[in-house]
Write a structure and sequence with these properties.
single chain; 285 residues; mainly alpha; oxidoreductase activity
Length: 285
């Protein structure tokens, strides 16, 4: 199905709107689940003290005044959102895993070496601890962070790999898929829910009738590994593990450098002391 945008609507703004709809729709769904406890059996982290409406203004500020102008700028510069209206199917399909790898690399570099740098000057400037004050147990907290943090952790890992694969052309479907899936993935990763339990060998299937053995073990294992949501929770609780490993990420850098949550223990005690002090201050406001 071909989607043709009106001449007055730049593709970068359209992709941003798709991201907004996907992000806030998914965020509201998880918020409803939190309030009704309809999926309480899948809620593995429930430590947030900041309500949804308290986080929303900062989230909207980041999305409207940092992400949107950045997307418009790279389109104006010709790096992204411009070119052929339809990508070749091979290029379309190959660009997706390449972008996932690029996202993994860029986020690892900014996340580990800038946002978690033990330099007190950087810690105080970037205030990444604001994001960690949420506990990653409410979906909307995916974009609850300081402005510099948002640019380094959200904007760059999205736009740099996109530019490196050729900018995605002007393919509306490609940009809709990338923006929408990234938004939903971020919400799920910070929601505190873990759907992998549904596919565990002992899980009950719908209605409690029978076991998940109705799934073939290999298929169930693949789905379980894909939707596993523990890595980012470990990062929020331990700080210095799984910098880019998480839902939808190949986790290449964390595995390669030995920082994946299940490979290392906590480190850098001096940075942790400053970290905890900042978290305590933010949680009291």
């Amino acid at each position: 199905m071909e989607v043709t945008l009106p001449s007055w609507l730049p593709l970068s703004i359209y992709a941003w709107l798709v991201q907004q709809v996907a992000f806030h729709a998914a965020g509201l769904v998880f918020e409803w689940c939190d309030r009704t406890r309809s999926l309480a059996h899948l809620k593995v982290r429930d430590i947030d003290r900041k309500p949804y409406m308290q986080m929303l203004p900062r989230v909207l500020f980041n999305q409207c005044f940092i992400l949107l102008p950045s997307m418009m700028l790279v389109q104006a510069a010709g790096y992204c959102f411009s070119g052929p209206k339809h990508l070749h199917p091979v290029r379309f399909l190959l660009s997706l895993p390449v972008m996932a790898i690029g996202h993994d690399v860029v986020q690892y570099l900014t996340h580990r070496y800038l946002l978690h740098n033990p330099s007190l000057r950087l810690m105080r400037l970037l205030q990444h601890s604001l994001h960690h004050s949420t506990g990653a147990s409410r979906g909307i907290s995916a974009c609850y962070m300081s402005a510099p943090d948002f640019f380094l952790e959200i904007v760059l890992p999205y736009l740099v790999p996109l530019a490196l694969v050729g900018g995605g052309g002007a393919d509306v479907l490609f940009h809709s898929l990338v923006a929408g899936s990234g938004a939903v993935g971020g919400i799920y990763e910070h929601s505190g829910y873990d759907f992998s339990a549904v596919f565990s060998p002992t899980a009950k299937i719908a209605g409690g009738r029978g076991q998940s053995s109705s799934w073939t073990p290999k298929v169930a294992a693949l789905i379980r590994d894909f939707v596993d949501n523990r890595a980012h929770g470990e990062h929020h609780s331990r700080a210095n593990v799984s910098f880019s490993d998480g839902f939808g990420s190949p986790g290449i850098c964390d595995t390669l450098f030995g920082t994946r949550w299940d490979l290392v223990a906590a480190r850098r005690a001096a940075a942790e002391k400053e970290w905890q002090a900042q978290r305590k201050r933010h949680m009291n406001h």
